Amino acid sequence: MCTQNQLSPFAFVEVEIGGGNGNLVETLESLMPSSAQMLNILRIKTLKLFKGVNSFRFYSYEPLACTIQRSIDASSRDWSDTSRPLFLVCLISTEYSMEGESPYTYRMMYSRETPDPSDELLATEFAKLIGTSNASGEMVFATVDMRYRPFLCKIATKFGKTMDSMGTRTWALYLPKAKADGWKREIKYGRAGKDITVKPLSSGDATTVNSHWKWGTLESDPHIRDQIEKLPSAGVFSNDDLVSWGILCLTGTISALQTQESHRRRGFGELIMKSISTQMIEHEMVPFCEVELDTTASRKMMDKLGFIVAFDAAWMSWPHNN
């Protein structure tokens, strides 16, 4: 066991996530709602919904003297101990290219304590960690809690860059489990309309989903297909034609929600959110989504369904030639 005088310096070390993870999940649950997305990513990892073990790599800011092997087992520390920082980073590697980065990596972070930009040791160690993932190219941080922004701006300067936002400020929203009571039965027995069915998407629907996705490219089609095949999704079909849909993204966020123009204002978006939310709850995840600040109709729908703001967020980046 480490003694008090061994608690310095700190470094980011890999966390081995398995079947037994100590009190990590319970601690994150106690820190809801700001921890909702990291909880979902942990569930995706532990349930092995994506078989590639190296697709999800978790790191924690730990006393280096206690972690000579540069890794720890998740069950080996008390995550509820507030005398030590709780700062988790997850790097999610994909097999497709986007924003000039190949393969594209989602960079997710959660910290119980707001990271201090003036903490040079923390900033240096964080820069070392992300510097292994194509720092010379597009560096994108997904669903960033705005309280992390000053810290990430400091990190950008360590690479001679200026942190920017992708022009996408969002509300990060979560659904309390009790709000979904009765939704599964409603979807199964409710009357959405004649010849209307609600069911999970299939891989054959990937091209349709990708072609309407705001960030969709030719390279992202396999990525969308991969997520449809392995994670919760939902589609509304009219006479077997896909007219509304949504998927769960690798980042634990309900994404790519879309309804064909000819079928809008019929409540199909609500059906999609209810269907995916109930599937997520069955997987012990927290229904979680992002709504862009200028999409007032989507925000009203989420409010109606019972979603609550977890935190103000943004996708933040620094560009290639900045």
UniProtKB/TrEMBL annotation:
InterPro entries: Acyl-CoA_N-acyltransferase (IPR053225), Acyl_CoA_acyltransferase (IPR016181), GCN5-like_dom (IPR013653), GNAT_dom (IPR000182). It holds the Pfam family FR47. Residues 196-322 form the N-acetyltransferase domain. GO terms for molecular function: acyltransferase activity, transferring groups other than amino-acyl groups. SUPFAM superfamilies: Acyl-CoA N-acyltransferases (Nat). It comes from the Eukaryota. PANTHER family: GLYCINE N-ACYLTRANSFERASE-LIKE PROTEIN. This is N-acetyltransferase domain-containing protein.
